[in-house]
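ingest -> validate -> predict -> emit
validate: passed (alphabet ok, no gaps, 393 aa)
predict: started
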Amino acid sequence: MKQFKQSQLLSGLPDQFFAALTKKAAQYVSAGHDVINLGQGNPDQPTPEHIVASLKEAAERPDFHKYPPFQGQNFLKEAAAGFYKREYDVDLDPQTEIAILFGGKAGLVELPMCLMNPGEYMLVPDPGYPDYWSGAALAGVQMDYMPLVEENRFLPDYGDIGKARLERAKMLLLNYPNNPTGAQATRAFFDETVALAYEHNICVVHDFAYGGIGFDGQKPPSFLQSQGAKEVGVELYTLSKTYNMAGWRVAFLAGNPSVISAVNLLQDHMYVSLFSAIQQAAATALSGPQDCVRELSNRYEKRRNALVDACRSIGWDVTAPAGSFFAWLPVPKPYTSVQFSDLLLEKAHVVTAPGIGFGAHGEGYVRVGLLTEEARLQEAIRRIGRLGLFSAL
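emit:
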C-alpha cells in the first residue's frame, strides 16, 4: 500500500491533547473499572422534545431534501436575530449581520482564515479552548497569549499587553463564560474591550458558547450589548450547550457585516449549507419556549454546588465557577497537572483534564465537567478524598 505524505498544512496542526486523554480513560474502562469521566465537555442531557419534534416534522418535507440555499435559510437567520433582540435587546440585520455555521468549532477555525494573512498576530486567551490554536495554525498566523489568572478573575489585563503588541494584533479572541475556568465577564469589561479594539483597529471575536449557563442569578452578558461592539467585532453563538444540541452541529455568528460577509464567502466555497430540517429545528429552539434553558442552567448550578461542597469537605480549597459547565480546580503540590490527572485516573478512576492542555497558564489546575449527576460528582470527590492529598489544607 502506497503511503502518501501529508501536506505541510496538516503537519503544522497542533496535537489533539484530549484524544490522548480519551484513550487513557478507555483503557481503564476496558479493564472493567468504574470510571467517572469528568474530563470531557459533551452535554449529558437529551435535546428538548419540542426541538426533536420540529426536526422530525421538517425531515418529512420534500423541499428540504434538496440543496438548501447558500448561506442558510432566512427563517433561521431571522430566528437568530429575534433571539438576540429578546434575550439581549441587541438589534441585528438577519441578512447582513448573521452567518449560519456548521457548529461553533467550525466558525472559530474559519475566522482567522477569513480575516488574517500568514504571519499576522492574534491575541488569544491562555488558558483557552485548544481549537483556537487550530484556527491559527490553518491560517498560518501567530498567537500572542493573554494570561488569564485568578487574581484578575480570569480576565485578560489589557494594561499588561503593551502598545506595540496591540498595534500589531489583527484579532482578539475572548470566551465568557469561560472554558476552562468557568469565569464570567462583566459589561464593563466588554465596554473596555470595545474601546481598545476601536483604538487599535482589532477585530474582536467573542466565543459565547456558554451564554445560556450562568449561576447565582447572574445572566451572562453578550459582548454585542456594549455600545459600538458591532463596529469592532462579532459574537459566536452555538446551540450545542444552551439546547443540548452538540451533535446537531449548528451555530451562528452575529455582528460586524464585513466579518459576516467574509465568513459567508469562505463557506460558499466549502459547503452549500446545513440540512434545512436541522435549520428548522434550530429556529424552533431559538424562537420557542425557553423553560428548557432555565431548567438546564439550574441543573448545572445544583451540580456545581454539589461538587464544590464535596471538594471543600475533603479540604480541597476550590473557587465555585460563575458560569459554563466546568470547574477549574487547583492541583495540590508537588504535582503537575498531568501527574495529578494521571494519579486520579490510576488510583481513583476519575478522569479530569490537565490544565496544561489549555495553555501554559493552565498549569496548576485540572478542569472538571459538570456533566454527570450530583451523586456521581460527589462519589468522584469521595474517591479523591480517600487518597489523602488534601489533609494539609
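Residues 70 and 268 are 7 Å apart (CA to CA).
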